Amino acid sequence: MVLRRDAQQNVTKLTAAAVTVFRQQGFQAPLEAVAQEAGVSIGTLYNRIGRDGTRETLIEAAAPVIAAERTDQLAAEARSRPDPWARFEHYVTALLDSQAASPPVDDIMARRLPESSQLTEQCEHALRHAGRFIAEAQADGSLRPDFRVEDLTVLFQASSGILRASAPPCADAWRRHLRFVLDGLRTPA
């Protein structure tokens, strides 16, 4: 079905608004906030996006924009580090820092919405970068040989739980946990 020009403009506004609102509040943000950000009524949101799967439709549209660019940027920053361990450590730390700073990134990394193919793909995208850093660090002997990329998913889920349970003055509890994990993964020089 071809939409009228004004209807297509509303879909475009709603998608952009979803990116903005989900970046700020996470994927569980009220749909009313998305409609308000887009400058349309909630009825227009439901009419243009559809009542069935509305949130999922908006998540599917917004997730790639929110996550992919950031993940690629973090991987590029990690590649600039001088050795394989530094690259691995930087990338994992940067991912968890992004997870702590952004509710939607936390949702993606903790795989909170497994029914979303876009969110699953974004997590897999991040893990593909990680897999390369893991292989390099294991090849030079700085990372335990039994560590696998799947172990990072567990780390992301644990950090998500720590983030949700921590409040000031322990807001950086995830950093302490990460330090313990990284110290346990590094092999002796």
Automatic annotation (TrEMBL):
The lineage of its organism: Bacteria, Bacillati, Actinomycetota, Actinomycetes, Micromonosporales. This is TetR family transcriptional regulator. InterPro entries: Homeodomain-like_sf (IPR009057), HTH-type_TetR-like_transc_reg (IPR050109), HTH_TetR (IPR001647), Tet_transcr_reg_TetR-rel_C_sf (IPR036271), TetR_SbtR-like_C (IPR049445). Residues 84-186 form the Transcriptional regulator SbtR-like C-terminal domain. Keywords: DNA-binding, Transcription, Transcription regulation. Residues 15-47 form the HTH tetR-type domain. Pfam families: TetR_C_43 (PF21597), TetR_N (PF00440). One of its GO terms (molecular function) is DNA-binding transcription factor activity.
